Amino acid sequence: MTPPPTDYPLQDTASQDWDSSLSAQLYGINAWGAGYFGVSGDGQVQVNVEFDGKPVKVSIMDIVSGMHERGLHMPAILRIRNLLDHRVEVLNQSFARAIADGGYKNCYRGVYPIKVNQQCHVVEEIADYGRRFNHGFEAGSKAELIIAMSQLRDSDGLIICNGYKDAEFIELGLYAVQMGIPCFFVVESLSELPIIVERSKALGIEPLIGVRIKTTVAVDGYWSQDSGDRSIFGLSTAALMRLVDGLRDAGMLHCLRLLHCHLGSQIPNIRNVRSGVLEACRFYAGLVQEGAPMGHIDLGGGLAVDYEGARTNSTHSMNYRLDEYCANIVESICETLDPLDIGHPVIISESGRATVAYSSMLLFNILNVSNTQPTSAEEEPPEDCVETLKNLYDIQARLSTENFQECYNDALFYRDELRELFHHGTASLRERAMAENVFLQVVHRIAAMLPQLKRVPPELQDLQEQLSDIYYGNFSLFQSLPDIWAIDQLFPIMPIHRLDEKPERSAILADLTCDCDGKIDRFSTPEGERNVLPLHKFTPGQEYYLGVFLVGAYQETLGDLHNLFGDTNVVNVSVNPDGSFEFAREFQGDSIADVLSYVEYEPKQLQENFRLVAEKAVRDGKISVAQRSQIVQAFRESLHGYTYFENH
Ligand SMILES: *Cc1c(COP(=O)(O)O)cnc(C)c1O
User: Fold this and answer.
1) Which domains, and CATH codes, for the chain?
2) Residue 349 CA, ligand 1 centroid: distance in Å
3) 34, 140, 202, 496: which could form a disulfide with 45 (CB 3.0–4.6 Å)?
């Protein structure tokens, strides 16, 4: 495999010729932004929303200023309510269009899978806005069912219960049915059947039963193991037959009303969707032929998000549009069921990622930069220095485009030799520092030659990456972007201002945790993955803000407390038709006391312990009573402060 190229296509545009549109192109925002994000002429990222076809743009920097005024500092998650509403709307409208265009004789009912983002105001917003489309919920646990039952505002919205279900789970769902909410139990394992039969007979409530099948289509992307014979979910065909027989014996086959299949998340290839739906329809037809009334087909999640904006079938992209996805599903169902004279079922989908990813972004500031820039060195080596250092200076003098490869090898050799001499005490600390500096000068000059070459030798291919800067960001990867660490997810990342300036530096990002995994060195672009991100020169004392976009799905509760960095501040912003915006909700992130109590410390006890330590220091004459008060006060303030870097 050839390593991804580390240079960016637009780097040779001169700084004075740079403008915002070149930045937009460089970071691919018009490709992955799906129309929701863009760059203004003065170089700021804007959120675009529409009111009756009239576009309204809000600069994220204006929102950041408003956050600072309210004491909500970086890092922070920014959610744009309008984007969440729009996603729910387009999902429902696209299915409605496909249904109308395809002459389909039933309707679409979307359900939002709560696990994808369980945060209260996300779920509330979907319930509220989704009501006009009868959008319901998918619950995978008792806790999620409790959310669904208490949030659903509309008795035509469905609740789909997946996951392992005990008697308590089933009773809750039966009560929902009794109250007129269409709440389906999707049987994932045969062991659930006797509990459903027993509980529904005991309570005298007829259940709505669905069954989850295993399809055998191979799916591209990261979640390929969610389908197929070895999928841990769903019934095998043999078990499915036992379920049908069991229901018939219990006199409950008429309760079997839904077929469920979930091919996996982030399906990048439309052909997989099509094959999966075709196979699911065969199962559906088979169950109708067995005598079950059915009436609902639930195609699970899987609708992808194009994180790269590349429109390909690679893992972080997708080769289809929403309209195409809906049309494919409608056509595949008609194609299978029409020849068999089976009526069209209600189409259900459980799109999570595609519903919530766009609405959230992580914002953070850069704290510091480290780079490999050499300092300017003396032209000549000192007279009396070791020979190895003189050799390094020689390379510097003879380096050219003809001999750069040989010079590179020599420079490595002499640098290592000098380090060896230092170990043995033959070279001084100052000589080692000079050697490393000359070495850097040589490799930086070589790196600058590479873009002009027709062919870059393999050993030099990641040189630019090795020489890139490290930008230290005020965030924790483990808390806020766990999928980057856990499954190599790519998210679009870019500065949210200064985009009318040329980004002259190449960098990787490091977070605040002192963990070597706490870095980002893979970046998505419409041309594919890169190992460095172009960024602007960082000037200490001037804030520089980056945004990680499309992070609304799966990131907020999978995160952990590595190094005890807690939840970040969160703001929900609602954009108005006149271009103003409101902070609809704001949430302070965890304090240090909060995260310490998660790991079983008692903040009051910590304070008391510390008071005793300070008291002893007074007794021992180390500090005065006045100093003691000051120290105890500082301790208390820290305990109740933010877990991230604060510079205010
Ligand atoms: C995770 C999950 C979903 C959500 O999938 P997305 O790809 O995020 O839309 C839907 N249904 C089931 C059963 C799931 O496990």
Assistant:
1) 158-351 (3.20.20.10), 387-464 (1.20.58.930), 593-639 (no CATH)
2) 9
3) 496
